[in-house]
């Protein structure tokens, strides 16, 4: 009998821990041409690792890192797939529930920058229209081989309404900042929506039982998660 109670207590504690591990879960997708450094950006951010001879990603991988954003514990779940079409997993599943995207090109390869438009189209076709997008010009350590100026990239970013940074997974330059910026932007959007919903709920004149949708950006806002599962 006592054992039974202890068991119930343990289960209860486990549930408590799981529930309180984080305040928000945000799914972020990595996109961009093959070889631009998506997987190394991910390993730098989640494990502080870099590999000079990394192989092309096959299928889908993901890694997580939990960090603080404006006093909230946010778990970033970052998905990575191959830039090359033939190695890619089903596109719609990859984008489902994503609230942020890091769109990477290689500053030493003009073609990867020219393809940014293609990736934006893919985002428009498959992702939530409110998705937060950061464009990253990676391999900034290879300045002597530069084929894309920061000015050109900035112009495109402004035209398309994206945030923009140059990064280096090798030198750990701006990788942290890129993700922090995405997470902060997502958090601000979500806080604003929650506030607007609160205000709408307390405004007299709204009939009882009216449904107010605050979940545009997240698959499941009530669970305080922004990842679909
Ligand atoms: N110099 C330099 N090399 C980098 C940097 N980031 C990645 N690389 C190198 O670029 C190559 C490709 O990196 P990956 O991270 O595998 O590229 P990817 O975008 O994941 O490629 P796919 O999985 O094929 O889509 C590897 O040889 C990396 O070592 C960087 O910031 N600077
Ligand atoms: Mg990869």
TrEMBL record:
Where found?
Answer: Endomembrane system
List, alphabetically, the InterPro entries matched: P-loop_NTPase, Rab_GTPases_membrane_traffic, Small_GTP-bd, Small_GTPase
A Pfam match: Ras
What are the recorded GO MF terms, alphabetically? Answer: GTP binding; GTPase activity
Q: How does it sit in the membrane?
A: Lipid-anchor
Q: Which family does it belong to?
A: Belongs to the small GTPase superfamily. Rab family.
Q: Return the protein name.
A: Ras-related protein Rab2BV-like
- This protein's record includes keyword NADP: no
Q: Does the keyword Lipoprotein apply?
A: yes
Name the keywords, alphabetized.
Answer: GTP-binding, Lipoprotein, Membrane, Nucleotide-binding, Prenylation
Report the coiled-coil segments.
none
Instruction: Report the source organism.
Output: Cucurbita maxima
Q: Name one GO cellular component term.
A: endomembrane system
């Amino acid at each position: 009998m006592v054992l039974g109670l202890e068991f119930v207590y343990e289960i209860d504690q486990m549930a408590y821990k799981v529930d309180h591990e984080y305040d928000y879960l945000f799914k972020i997708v990595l996109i961009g041409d093959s070889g631009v450094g998506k997987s190394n950006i991910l390993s730098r951010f989640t494990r502080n690792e870099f590999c000079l001879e990394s192989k092309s990603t096959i299928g889908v991988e993901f890694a997580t890192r939990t960090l603080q954003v404006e006093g909230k514990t946010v778990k970033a779940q970052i998905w990575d797939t191959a830039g090359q079409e033939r190695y890619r997993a089903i596109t719609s599943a990859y984008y489902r529930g994503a609230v942020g995207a890091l769109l990477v090109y290689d500053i030493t390869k003009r073609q990867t920058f020219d393809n940014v438009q293609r990736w934006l189209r893919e985002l428009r076709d498959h992702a939530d229209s409110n998705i937060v997008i950061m464009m990253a010009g990676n391999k900034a350590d290879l300045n002597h081989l530069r084929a894309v100026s920061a000015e050109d990239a900035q112009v495109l970013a402004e035209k398309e309404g994206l945030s923009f940074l140059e990064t280096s997974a090798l030198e750990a330059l701006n990788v942290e900042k890129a993700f922090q910026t995405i997470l902060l932007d997502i958090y601000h959007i979500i806080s604003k929506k929650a506030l607007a919903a609160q205000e709408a709920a307390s405004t007299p004149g709204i009939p009882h039982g009216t449904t107010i949708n605050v979940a545009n950006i997240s698959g499941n806002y009530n669970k305080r998660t922004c990842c679909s599962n």
